[in-house]
C-alpha cells in the first residue's frame, strides 16, 4: 500500500517545540496548559503577539525550529519503519518552504524515519497537497491541518487526522497516539 504523511505536527511535535523556544527567546514562562488549548495552528497568540509579530518570530526562528532537536511523537518512527519493512511505500508530503526542502529531507532521515528520496514531496502550498496525493493515488494520508484534510474529503484516499487542539471540529478517523495507527486501518 501507499502511505502518505505530513511531517510537522503529524510526525514531529513541532509547535510544542516552538512554544518552548518562544518562551526561552522571549524570557517568558507561558504554561504548557496554555499550549494544549491554543485553538489555532499559529502559536503567537499565546505570547500576546500580533499576527505580523508572530509571523516575523516564526521566520526568525525557523532554522532553529526545523533543524535542531524537535522530538518526533512517541512510536511514530517505529510505525513508519514497520510499514516500510513490510514492503509498503512511504511518502512524505510537507508544505515547508522550498528553500528548506533538501535540509528537511536529510533531517527527517537523520531522525530515523524511512525516507526514499523520490518519495519526498516538499515546498507546495497546503491547498496544493491534494494534487500530489491524488496523482500518487495514496491509500492512506495523515495530516493535522483541517485546511488540508478538507480538500481531500472527496478522494478515495483514507484520511486520518492527527489529533491537535485546532482540529477538534473535523470528523475524520482520529489518531491520538501513534501506537493506535495499525488499529485505525482496520
Ligand atoms: Mg502539519
Tell me what the structure shows:
By secondary structure, the protein is an alpha/beta fold. It has 2 domains: 122 residues, 3-Layer(aba) Sandwich (Rossmann fold); 54 residues. Helix content is 39%, strand content 13%. The protein has 8 helices and 6 strands; from the N terminus they run E-H-H-H-H-E-H-E-H-E-H-E-E-H. The protein has a 6-stranded parallel sheet. Strand 2, helix 5 and strand 3 form a beta-alpha-beta unit. Helix 1 crosses helix 3. It is globular and about 45 Å long. 30% of the residues are buried.
Please give a handful of descriptors for the protein shown:
binds magnesium ion; 8 helices; EC 3.1.3.-; 186 residues; 5'(3')-deoxyribonucleotidase; globular; 5_3-deoxyribonucleotidase-like; Rossmann fold; six-stranded parallel beta sheet; alpha/beta
Map the helices and strands:
Layout (H helix, E strand, L loop, with lengths): L1 E4 L8 H13 L5 H6 L13 H17 L8 H10 L3 E6 L6 H10 L9 E3 L6 H8 L3 E4 L2 H4 L8 E5 L10 E3 L5 H4 L2
Parallel strand pairs: 1-2, 1-4, 2-3, 4-5, 5-6
Helix pairs in contact: 1-3
Bound molecules: magnesium ion.
CATH class of the largest domain: Alpha Beta
Order of secondary-structure elements = EHHHHEHEHEHEEH
Total strand segments: 6
Number of helices: 8
Total domain modules? 2
- Which value, in Å, is the CA radius of gyration? 16 Å
Widest sheet: strand ordering: 3-2-1-4-5-6
The portion of residues forming beta strands comes to 5-15%
CATH fourth-tier homologous superfamily of the largest domain: HAD superfamily/HAD-like
Amino acid at each position: 500500500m501507499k502511505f502518505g504523511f505530513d511531517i510537522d505536527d503529524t510526525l514531529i511535535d513541532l509547535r510544542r517545540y516552538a512554544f518552548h523556544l518562544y518562551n526561552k527567546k522571549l524570557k517568558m514562562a507561558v504554561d504548557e496548559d496554555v499550549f494544549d488549548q491554543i485553538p489555532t495552528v499559529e502559536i503567537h497568540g499565546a505570547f500576546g503577539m500580533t499576527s505580523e509579530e508572530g509571523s516575523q518570530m516564526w521566520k526568525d526562528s525557523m532554522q532553529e525550529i526545523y533543524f535542531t532537536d524537535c522530538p518526533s511523537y512517541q512510536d511514530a518512527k517505529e510505525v513508519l519503519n514497520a510499514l516500510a519493512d513490510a514492503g509498503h511505500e512511504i511518502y512524505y508530503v510537507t508544505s515547508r518552504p522550498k528553500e528548506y526542502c533538501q535540509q528537511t529531507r536529510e533531517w527527517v532521515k537523520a531522525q530515523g524515519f524511512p525516507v526514499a528520496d523520490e518519495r519526498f514531496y516538499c515546498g507546495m502550498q497546503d491547498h496544493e497537497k491534494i494534487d500530489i496525493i491524488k496523482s500518487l493515488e495514496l491509500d492512506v494520508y495523515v495530516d493535522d491541518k483541517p485546511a488540508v484534510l478538507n480538500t481531500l474529503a472527496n478522494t478515495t484516499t483514507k484520511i486520518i487526522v492527527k489529533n491537535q487542539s485546532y482540529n477538534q471540529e473535523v470528523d475524520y478517523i482520529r489518531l491520538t497516539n501513534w501506537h493506535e495507527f495499525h488499529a485505525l486501518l482496520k
